[in-house]
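Summary for the steering committee. The consortium agreed at its last meeting that each partner would contribute one worked example illustrating the joint modelling workflow. Our contribution is presented below. We chose a case with several input lines so that the handling of multiple components could be demonstrated. No manual editing was applied between input and output; the record is shown as generated.
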Amino acid sequence: MLENLRDAVRKFLTGSTPYEKAVDEFIKDLQKALISADVNVKLVFSLTSRIKERLIKEKPPSILERKEWFISIVYDELSKLFGGDKEPSVNPTKNPYIIMLVGVQGSGKTTTAAKIAYFYKKKGYKVGLVAADTYRPAALDQLVQLGQQINVPVYGERDNKNAVEIAKNGISKFKDNMDIIIVDTAGRHGYGEENKLLEEMKEIYEAIKPDDVILVIDTSIGQKAYDLASRFHQASPIGSIIITKMDGTAKGGGALSAVAATGATIKFIGTGEKVDELEVFNPKRYVSRILGMGDIETILDKIKGMEEYEKVQKKMEDVMTGKSKLTLKDVYDQLIALRKMGPLSKVLQHIPGLGVMLPMPDETQLKIGEEKMKKWISALNSMTYKELENPNIIDKSRMRRIAEGSGLEIEDVKELLEWYNNMNKLLKMVKRKRGDFEKFFKGKI
Ligand code: GDP
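What follows is the complete predicted structure of the assembly.
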């Protein structure tokens, strides 16, 4: 099960096994977990060789421990395996927005139709369901019952066997008073009969011209999802995919990675029988979950903090060359970036020249610095955007309001502003005399 990876990450990060050996052990655990989740063996091996290659080619960012860096690479590569940065867009792009659902019998299509209806209804859209699954007699009753449960109207024609007609009639019925219309089509085919399924899909597609066609796939088919998804993806490039029953099988990884490998977008995953058990699928979020949210988030925060810090550093260079002006917004961005990177004592070891934005380049003052950082972030949080961009407007009464809003003394706010003013003066001086500036940051002035 992929869930076992969480323990492997924990063991790797907290264990005392030497780095190289721990990496080998982790990679073995990773391969085992992926293969037992039915991920294609070729995909598994290319994933591990990419991880190993990056370990050789790339240099760890200074802010991360080597083990953290390794896990960040694993996170990145696993995310790619499950679809990378793809964050599916689920917002309807027109009104009414017509969604057509296709899928083989038993895949969870009808349940999913109701789940999607509920998903959009909760977002405030008016939704109508059309039962065009004429093959399974109980499908209409099932959808009517689900519709009642979520209070969404269902259109169906009990004695009509013509799915195309029902779909068309349903759409005419709903098109003037609904934002979203979901058409549940016949799923009479079994796996292995994809061609028939796709042919029928085309027929209804031509008749109703939906805005999205979604193929529903049951997770338990694992890697076999590749064939189905790729044929579907070729036949319907606007289409996307929902994988159901992610809760009930160990094969979740197999179906997800197989579908991702076809280039198709996985829009939602079904995680239970109940009507609210549907999630928008986000590969990165999924991977953070299987690797252990807490551990991953700490590592990603550090990386993000570092990137944001570098951005502010660039801005500082512009300030020094007179291209830009230092605002409290820059100070705020810098403090937040630092906060993400971890405790000051650790951060200082990793970032040369950090004294730039903080009043205490001296390590003995770290604790004071840490407290000051907290206070200043609160004060900056209580300022308006205008005040951050243009601190000169902050008079006594604004200072009082900021202090009250952040639970600080007015002196704290004053101190921040004084520091900001000194910093500005200093930066102006630097423009003239770069040497003094460097001396200042080395603590020599
Ligand atoms: P259809 O034939 O494709 O329309 O399939 P149904 O909607 O009738 O679903 C078949 C079975 O799968 C039903 O028992 C559903 O409750 C169940 N089902 C659907 N989606 C999920 C899911 O995400 N998780 C679980 N555990 N069961 C599901």
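Residues 2-81 form a domain with the Four Helix Bundle (Hemerythrin (Met), subunit A) fold (CATH 1.20.120.140). The longest strand covers residues 212-218.
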